[in-house]
Design goal:
alpha/beta; Rossmann fold; seven-stranded parallel beta sheet; globular; NAD(P)-bd_dom_sf; oxidoreductase
Amino acid sequence: MTRSRSVFITGGNRGIGLAIARAMAEAGDKVAVTYRSGEPPAGMLGVQCDITDPSQVDAAFKRIEEEHGPVEVLVANAGITRDSLLLRMGEQDFTDVIDTNLVSAFRVAKRASKGMLRARKGRLIFVSSAVALLGEAGQANYAASKAGLIGFSRSLARELGSRGITSNVVAPGLTATDMAAELPEERIEALRGQIPLGRLAQPEEIAAAVQFLASEQAAYITGAVVPVDGGVGMGH
């Protein structure tokens, strides 16, 4: 029987994060998720936390460590968008997205790695985006933040690999979540037309890739970028 691990997922109360949390909880892991508003998912440890606040991040880790033990699998999934064309994009729109999507990943990875280094094992998984590799008009801030996760993850793969810690990225394409539902229908249709498989991803399909990277079967995979995008990013 597989041992139950301490798993921490940022932004785990909706969309892709919730699908990952459910998949890992159903597999028997002890799952903790951060959320900012609303209710945490049932059956998991919900930790209210603004991941852009270092003190709240530290408090979240302390609570998780008390209840589940040191974090063994970290999934940095939390993200926001502030879409706008470059000349209309405010300075705050750019820095808010970078801080939430990239700087916060640094924050949680640094904190989680302390326990992983002591244990000489661990899994760091960063949820990026196909947009990180392809670019997208109106998403310079989002694409920059998600591309930054790739360089960050690969640097950690080199830095922490000798201690049995893997660091990988999952790059989803357009996924059927609340975030996608906010797009105009004609925009979704235009994007769907660029996808070889001709449909949006389901959150559970992204979760399956994350679950694999967190598994023992993926122990020799590190520094990888795994696209789950219906083929939209081929060659990138």
